[in-house]
Amino acid sequence: GAVVSQHPSRVICKSGTSVKIECRSLDFQATTMFWYRQFPKKSLMLMATSNEGSKATYEQGVEKDKFLINHASLTLSTLTVTSAHPEDSSFYICSARDRDSTNYGYTFGSGTRLTVV
Amino acid sequence: GQNIDQPTEMTATEGAIVQINCTYQTSGFNGLFWYQQHAGEAPTFLSYNVLDGLEEKGRFSSFLSRSKGYSYLLLKELQMKDSASYLCAVRDLGGQNFVFGPGTRLSVLP
Predict the structure, then answer these.
(1) Residue B50: closest CA among chain A residues belongs to which residue?
(2) In B, which residues are within 8 Å of A46 by CB distance?
(3) Amino acid B27: pLDDT
(4) Which residues of A77-107 are buried (b: 16+ CB within 10 A; e: fewer)?
(5) A108 vs B44: CB contact, 8 Å cut-off?
(6) Would the CB atoms of B40 and A110 count as touching at under 8 Å?
(7) For FRET with A98, which of A17, A27, A30, B63 sits at 20 to 30 Å CA-CA?
(8) Are B72 and B19 in contact (CB under 8 A)?
(9) Confidence band (pLDDT; 50, 70, 90) for B30?
(10) DSSP output for A33-71
């Protein structure tokens, strides 16, 4: 079945530094990927929709200059948290659409736990 | 606007049956999904409904009534490993985006 690999699974960084999270579709081409953020005991909140070869579409309230998204190929999207602050600490999850998948096309990555100290 | 509501927490006993409800009010509808999420892990797909009625899949069943904006997930023969959060999500008309409900944390007790 469709697999989405997300890396790293955990990262701790200092305040003011930048962190890059990668999301790869391993056995399918993902023209669209989605980036979510999840706070403890809360649901997933869509941050942005990433389209291969074009600019990402950000949800209202999400700073595009802080959360840089690049979808340069059909199998890779990256989310860079720039100048991270403690309030950016969260669980970040990507998902990708595979039209041939039995789960009607949406597969999630394993998530990245970001802690900013 | 988009609004999806689920109970915050539920508790049930091993071997029992539990029903988790989801009500939604969205500007467009193109399918309702249920996901299971264990703490610290990504959601995993459980079921999908786009037409009214019941979809059964082993111990899990999901029901949809579009006219009522209502769905439920039914878990039978509960096992300890079923302790997790269950997320209801509605897909928009464009078929691209999901709106997730707040999730229901289910605790299965021995």
Answers:
(1) A104
(2) 97-100
(3) 80
(4) bbbebeebeeebbbbbbbbbbbeebebbbbb
(5) yes
(6) no
(7) B63
(8) yes
(9) confident
(10) EEEEEE-TT--EEEEEEEETTSPPEEPTT--TTTEEEEE
Give the model confidence (pLDDT) of A62-117 as tens digits: 999 999 999 888 899 999 999 999 999 999 999 988 766 655 667 899 999 999 99
Sheet architecture: strand order including B53-57: B3-5, B18-25, B70-75, B60-65, B53-57
Tokens 């690049």 map to which residue?
Answer: A70
- At B46-96, the pLDDT tens digits run 999 999 999 998 999 999 999 999 999 999 999 999 999 999 999 877 666
Average pLDDT, chain A: 90
Instruction: Kindly identify which residue of chain B lies nearest to residue A91, measuring between CA atoms.
Output: B40
At position B67, the amino acid (one-letter code) is S
Per-residue model confidence (pLDDT) at position B96: 67
CB contact under 8 A, B40 and A91: yes
* Neighbouring C-beta atoms of residue B49, cutoff 10 Å: 19
DSSP state of B82: G
What is the per-residue pLDDT for A76? Answer: 92
Q: In b/e form, how buried is each residue of A23-61, taking b as 16+ CB within 10 angstroms?
A: bbbeebebebbbbbbbeeeebbbbbbbbbbeeebbbeee
What is d(CA A54, CA A110) in angstroms, rounded to the nearest whole number? 25
Residue with tokens 């199998």: A75
Helix and strand totals (H; E) in chain B: 0, 11
Dig out the tokens for A102 from the structure: 């039995």
pLDDT at A42: 84
